[in-house]
Amino acid sequence: MQAARLREIGGPSKLRIEDVPEPEAAEGQTVVRVRAAALNHRDAFITQGLYPNIVLPRILGSDCSGEAGGRDIVVDPTIGWGADERVWSPDATILGMPADGTFAQFVAVPNQNIHAKPDHLSVEEAAALPLGGVTAYRAAFVCGGLQAGETVLITGVGGGVQTFALLYAKAIGAHAVVTSARDGKLERAKALGADVAINYATTPDWHKAVRAAVGAVDLAIDSAGGDSFAKALTVVKPGGRVVTYGGTTGDATIKMFPIFWNQLSIFGTSMGSPGDFAAMLDFVSKHRIKPAIDRVYELAEIESAMQRMDDALQFGKIVLRIPQ
Amino acid sequence: MQAARLREIGGPSKLRIEDVPEPEAAEGQTVVRVRAAALNHRDAFITQGLYPNIVLPRILGSDCSGEAGGRDIVVDPTIGWGADERVWSPDATILGMPADGTFAQFVAVPNQNIHAKPDHLSVEEAAALPLGGVTAYRAAFVCGGLQAGETVLITGVGGGVQTFALLYAKAIGAHAVVTSARDGKLERAKALGADVAINYATTPDWHKAVRAAVGAVDLAIDSAGGDSFAKALTVVKPGGRVVTYGGTTGDATIKMFPIFWNQLSIFGTSMGSPGDFAAMLDFVSKHRIKPAIDRVYELAEIESAMQRMDDALQFGKIVLRIPQ
User: Fold this and answer.
1) Which of B21, B94, B264, B320 has the fewest C-beta atoms under 10 angstroms from its C-beta?
2) What's the complex ipTM?
3) Is B167 helix (H, G, I), strand (E, B) or coil?
């Protein structure tokens, strides 16, 4: 079968489209025919060696939609979460490292990770859903407790998770404030329902602009860390919540006073449990949410697709069409 | 009546023992005869002008035990918390600023803030309880969710709240790791049941020493902020909790990765709700917890008492005996 395989560390250019043997199902597994896959920053980080426990060569990729047992399906990419809803087991892994992933015509996955594809989604839309969709669901609802009528700040809209968070917030009737360094992404976010959109590159005091626009927010969702996380803490109302699922810009220097005086709750989150994944699928189906898709590439174009993500040019998910 | 009144900003030396008129009960208030009062850092901060909305002259003091309506009582010092258990109302205040406080022979307080003194406590022990006791209760249980068998890290033991947290943890059968810059305080903490005691002044990598001693902890309680808070984040196990109720050493520079990867929850807290206060009294009575009292001073010695707190020499609460 065809697959995009990483042979050595060194960035996306080290991915090779190769002809490799089809996987075989181990005990408790099913081999899925992959129709479409989607990129995550995790994939790029792995090509750069910025992930623990990298084993080479490996087929990367966590997200896919496809077919198994004659059904249209999507795959929950978190393997072995464990019994504790609060946190994954130390043995949990994500599809695509260390196990071979979805950038291939076939992938072997645990039976319980296979779910029916939501009927209202195309193959490409369904492939965009898993990792970003469940991370955003857990961030917004399980950790963040977002409610109708509340206001959520979503920093750095355009990335997959943040764009899902925007779609979810609008689906339940929450108000959404988004930031980005690119006006084009802010326009796209407004088209998806964002109530306030602020360019943090041209408005360095964007946290003051948030307050001027909507007062304080009930919830902030951030994955940038650093200055972004620190500023997010200052715009949350007393008793409010902040959720972080990343730290791409580095360490954050934070003031303690607003945290304890305003009785804030801060939740770190990564991925989601099997329960979160099932709840996310129900939610997406109920609200007929369509993932924002940035572009669809052919599998053979994976290096260009990865480069676009690395350059932070995308709005929503970048999808790979897998040759059938 | 005699009272310790602050006439001008400038530190504890600006407190004067004066003869002032007895307070009168406004609508919904009761005048309490104060038997004993206790110091909080808040009182020292106010003398230094480090608090919002300071009105002078004022009688300071948030904690007391005493007598009202022929009953032995303690006073909940949080006035007007409001209906939301998660956070106090913007109008909430603490006894002792802006309203006259407990460093006096009499104090007027809202009727609903008066509670029966736990039977097993002396007048001095009961005076030590309110603000530190409720802050620690909310930090350890309401926010921190501490359970029997879990391990809690308590940084900077010796302060009132942290010492209550230690007593509470041991009362329910949790394990406690404490830190301090003073060996004398560590010895006192061990005598109260601390399982592991680490001097953070002589062991700058105390967070590594915590891990070496007990592995990771379920909960960390910190009020120092800065480096202390940042290090506390690194010793909490996946899915664990960190509670902060202060930031005396300043801003904290934190790594985002352990927060989101380990799915930590961080809770800021200040004081406690009326429900927390009542629950704290029940808990203290049920477990017959005796507050750790550092020293008892006469009201006239308040400057020396404040100086001891300012020098961080105390272990537990510093109490003032009020002349009758």
Assistant:
1) B21
2) 0.96
3) helix
